[in-house]
Every structure is written in structure tokens, then in C-alpha cells.
Amino acid sequence: MQMVKYLKQYRIPFSGLSAGKHKFDFEIDNKFFDCYEHSIVKKGQLKADVELTKQENMLVVNFHIYGKIQLNCDVCLSDFEAPQDFEERALVKFTEESWENNTEEVIVLAKTDYELDIAALLYEYINVRVPYYSKCTEQGVNLSCDPEMLAKISADVTEQDEENTEEKIDPRWDILKNIKNN
């Protein structure tokens, strides 16, 4: 329940705003990511500069999100900070009918709605930016993989290779090979 309360700060009350541009700033921290159980990103320190342009029957919302998120290196398994700096845009249209066909860029609200909840948008925009394959040297700044961990990993791999070559074939399989000869 507290998580829902925490995410209330990511709502923009647009009903009282005049037509034109309006700016909002939001802080995104570890508590934000804690509100989403299956978030790829667990830690981060980001800012979202949001520019909302109110028109008669729609809103244009531009996001500039920047800061750092913590990722886990897929090579050496260490945590590292990856800088983020990107822009996104969402269009919000109003309709009197019930409308379920939201798209990636167009959000539909009822004419009676008075605020826009951007928490889910921020969550999605940030998590989509997480690379499929994280590596210290590629997403981090002036970082390299942990040499101790790399040494341990390569030692484990050579041990496994030696074990695999020494592995003997189970004699039961030898009996099955004789079936081909009959």
C-alpha cells in the first residue's frame, strides 16, 4: 500500500492547467524501482524533466530522462553504474467513449480524467533502455571487468574442460552400440 502512495508523486494534474507548455521535474531513485517487483533495474539515481503541452483535446508529453542506473555485468558479475540520457514522447488523447486501444505512443484518457500518471511510462522507458547483454567496459564509464573474477572464471572453465575429456563412457552405452552390428 505504501508503494502505491509513493507512486502518487508521479502524477501530473492537468485539468487546472492553461493551454500551452508546462514543465515538471521528477526524481527517480531506488524507492521508485522497489515499487515494481519484476523491474530489471533495482537501483538508480535519475531525473526526469517533463514538458507537457496542453491543447484543447490532447496533451503532448516530452520526457528527458538522465542519470545513472546500476547494472550487473554479465561477464565478471560485478555491479556497475551505467549512465543514461535519452528522450521520449507520449501523446495523450481524450475521448468520451471507453477506449482500450492504447498504442506505444498514444495514450487515451476519458474526458473526465484530471491527472496523468506517468510512473508506468517512466518505468517502461528506463527498463527498455537496459541492454540485453550488460558489460562493464561497454555500458560503464572508464570501467573494466574485475580481473580477479575473470581469472576465477577462466580457471573454472579449464577445470571443466579437463573433467570432460577424462569422462569415461558408461558401459551400458557400449552394449547399445552393439545393436547396430546385429
Q: Which secondary structure elements does this structure contain, and how are they paired or packed?
A:
Blueprint: H1 2-7, E1 11-13, E2 20-28, H2 30-34, E3 44-54, E4 58-72, E5 79-95, E6 106-110, E7 115-117, H3 119-128, H4 136-139, H5 147-166, H6 171-177
Any overview of this molecule?
The chain is an alpha+beta fold. It has 2 domains: 142 residues, no CATH class; 32 residues, no CATH class. The protein is 29% helix and 35% strand. The chain is built from 6 helices and 7 strands; from the N terminus they run H-E-E-H-E-E-E-E-E-H-H-H-H. The chain has a 5-stranded mixed β-sheet. A hairpin with a 6-residue loop joins strand 4 and strand 5. The longest helix has 20 residues. The chain is elongated and about 85 Å long. The mean pLDDT is 85.
Quick summary:
This protein is of the alpha+beta class and 182 residues long.
Question: How many extended strands?
Answer: 7
Q: Sheet with the most strands?
A: 5 strands, mixed
pLDDT averaged over residues = 85
The figure for the number of domains is 2
User: How is the largest sheet built, in terms of strand order?
Assistant: 2-3-4-5-6
Helix content: 25-40%
Overall 3D shape:
elongated
Q: Cα distance, first to last residue?
A: 71 Å
Task: Assess the beta-strand content as a share of residues.
Answer: 25-35%
Number of helices: 6
Radius of gyration: 26 Å
Category from helices, strands and their pairing: alpha+beta
Pfam family, one: YceD
